[in-house]
Automatic annotation (TrEMBL), chains A, B:
Name of the molecule in the record: Dipeptidase
GO molecular function annotations of the record: metal ion binding; peptidase activity
Annotated ranges, domain Peptidase M20 dimerisation: 192-350
SUPFAM superfamilies (UniProt xref): Zn-dependent exopeptidases
Domain of life according to the entry: Bacteria
GO terms under biological process: proteolysis
Organism, scientific name: Deinococcus arcticus
Keyword list, A-Z: Hydrolase, Metal-binding, Protease
A Pfam family hit: M20_dimer
UniProt keyword annotation of NAD present: no
CDD domains hit by this protein: M20_dipept_like
């Protein structure tokens, strides 16, 4: 079957109309008043998949239900588990939407609706991809759909679901389309995610707030001390100073650095897009390398003393900060958390005590660039876009990857269909009509290529 | 007249009873429901001074009234303006008072009541001191009383009052008793106050909050940057690094350093009293030198990013801090504010912009240790305590000193009667009965000595 074949066979009008029906359901998982709509969206997907010949059901969880469907009629062929989610972000602030969030509207070639790209549009593209293939005969691989309803609230019940259905969910590869390609014309395969260690630093000075006149010059100041500690956590080359922090890191390969350096990226444009005059970071690495392949240390919040209007001449008793470190393959979140926990007290200035309180962590992942799954995805994308895919990583951390790796023990293949400009989580979220249609074709070709 | 004379002539029971009547009036200037009580306290003092032969009146202001009284029957003798205040701090939290704040009670030789030491007790001691002298004849100097009702809310109308009554208030020296002696047995003359420059530092990163996964490693982090800026404002010797900060400072004299080093001060006890393991500060100076005679830089408040429960992986768009610098004679608050305003942007790390927003300032003051006024006070205190006074400075800033210096152009003589343990501004404020009585004698002897 050639590219032309499937593209010609896709009924785009019909595909759009079905997605619009799904987008009209306000399935906001964070909103307790919308439990009925959550069930409605799940049933919509179940019914659709059932109609395609999948064995499909809606499974209750302690939270919102999971849609599970399977089509296992390709003996001897790989099994592909497609993960997606049918819940969406809250639509607030409503007044910023040009058209209502749950009335999908096409403007300038884009479908505007909450969930259009994240993740109803991308998940439904896989449903339509399977349909496209089924219209021609059987599926070339065994296919399982796992469409959850709690991704936007942190997937609190997914891990339990995976454990409970471990045997049933068994797959050779897990396909996720829930993100952005590098640029409009560029098909992208994401093969790595960063991990995370999130902690708080607490600094204690005197046993009470002190008057800065009566005590200033002799009493330790925990805010000044906290600033000193934070400043010491990085050197003047932007490197984290925690002893052992970089130990064991999988350094970027020449292949990766070469690949990324050839991408159409402009530091000036990137800086301008966020309104800053420079992009500081670890010396010796490009911006993309720092975003995707190097660890970070960022203070996410800080507090202490008087924050109100006007002035108060107080030396606070305590101060604190939230600090997150993005981690890369080779770094273990628990070990890194221990390292900073041990290190911070040693760099606290005299007079104060500083301690680290761990919050949570997430493991970094990197999948084999040259795995047959990545190669199959690359071939599929080339059939759609006419060019090789870019192999990128993402700077973010995707906690479900660890759950898939630990429980289902299968590699994850990220085939993103969206773009950053889709503005997921923001008002006026959208998904390019062309990207939706390309996504459907990508899904169909990917199943074909995985069947080779 | 000898020490024994006046001490024997003081009717202590009567003095206590009168002060208790004044303390029973809940003259809380911050409480708008107590305007009547404010007027009542002012009238109490006016009537008392009038009864002593002073020409006394209650002057309305835009806020609470001023009690002004004068007794000018010593031609050719100096004129002494005694400043005090009859307003008190709010009594909250009421439940922490052992006995009610406006029912003065003596326990273990201490008068417990709101305002007992701050400042009704100390101000009224001067009234009683004048009475004691008047019982023997005329006052040895010309005496003016200026008793305001807004000290605890920042004296918002005092400057206007001083300007309006500049000629009338003219004096050779201004006596203030509104603070603490160094230690119970030690008479203390405070001859210097620190000044203040209070600013905010604002740091701006990107034009919006960013996701720390997607942007961490490339986007500038204004909280990290603020911490770096703050850390750079002092060196590892505890010295402020702002260029020119120490220029022109009146260095501590050998006389002052010698005087203070002989005071009964223990760093260990001081550290223990505020619960800290060390007293960091500028290298090369003792704790008392750092508190009284050296400038400081303390962050009084800091904020930025996410301060709530749990975690949020955000790179904030902005961060800020409130910073105060206590200043010593030779430092001009406006110049210091300009120096930090110029300096901070130059030490901001790449990618962020930092600016300083001035708040307010206050001038440092130091009065001549060997002035005739200080010598007279020392002689008076020696007659009460049987030992020389300690010449101390205070680390705090007393804004009214500048108003007195600028408008009345007279030196200020601080003759403190209280102790730190009096706990002004706290529940269970108290004033030792002995300190009250000594204060009355001090006041009387001071007027005598100033008349020599």
């Amino acid at each position: 079957m050639t590219t032309a074949d499937l593209s010609a066979l896709l009924n785009r009008e019909q595909a759009d109309a079905e997605l619009f029906d799904l987008l009209r359901i306000p399935s906001v998982s964070a909103d307790p008043t919308r439990r009925a709509e959550m069930g409605q969206a799940a049933e919509f997907l179940r019914a659709k998949l059932s109609g395609l010949g999948f064995s499909a059901r809606v499974d209750a969880t302690a939270g919102h239900p999971v849609v599970y469907a399977e089509h296992l009629k390709a003996p001897g062929k790989p099994t592909v588990l497609i993960y997606g989610h049918y819940d969406v972000q809250p639509e607030a602030p409503l007044e910023e939407w040009v058209t209502p969030p749950f009335e999908p509207t096409v403007r300038n070639g884009r479908i505007y609706a909450r969930g259009s790209t994240d993740d109803k549009g991308q998940a439904y593209a896989h449903v339509k991809g399977a349909e496209l293939l089924l219209a021609q005969g059987e599926l070339p691989v065994n296919v399982k759909f796992l469409l959850e309803g709690e991704e936007e609230i942190g997937s609190p019940n997914l891990e339990a679901y995976l454990r409970e259905h471990e045997a049933e969910l068994k797959a050779d590869v897990i396909v996720i389309s829930d993100g952005s390609r590098f640029a409009p014309e560029i098909p992208t395969i994401t093969y790595g995610v960063r991990g995370l260690s999130y902690v708080e630093i607490h600094v204690q000075g005197a046993n009470r707030d002190l008057h800065s006149g009566s005590y200033g010059g002799a009493a330790p100041n925990p805010i000044n001390a906290l600033a000193e500690i934070i400043a010491k956590l990085k050197d003047d080359q932007g490197r984290v100073t925690i002893p052992g922090f970089y130990d064991g890191i999988d350094e970027l390969t020449e292949e990766e650095r070469g690949m990324w350096s050839s991408l159409p990226h402009s530091d000036d444009e990137f800086a301008a897009s966020i309104g800053v005059p420079a992009l500081p970071g670890e010396a010796g690495y490009s911006t993309l390398e720092r975003l995707w392949g190097r660890p970070t240390l960022d203070v996410n919040g800080i507090w202490g003393g008087y924050q109100g209007e006007g002035s108060k001449t107080v030396i606070a008793a305590k101060a604190g900060a939230k600090v997150s470190m993005r981690l890369v393959p080779g770094q273990d979140p628990e070990r890194i958390t221990q390292l900073i926990t041990d290190y911070v007290p040693t760099i606290a200035p005299a007079g104060v005590t500083a301690k680290v309180v761990p919050h949570h962590g997430g493991r970094p992942f990197k999948f084999d660039l040259n795995s047959p799954y990545n190669q199959a995805a690359n071939r599929a994308l080339k059939r759609v876009y006419g060019r090789e895919a870019v192999f990128a990583r993402t700077g973010g951390s995707i906690p479900i990857v660890a759950a898939f790796a630990d429980i289902l023990r299968a590699p994850v293949l990220f085939v993103d269909m969206g773009l950053n400009e889709d503005a997921p989580h923001s008002p006026n979220e959208s998904f390019a009509v062309q990207d939706y249609h390309n996504g459907i074709l990508t899904s169909a070709y990917l199943l074909q290529e995985l069947g080779q």
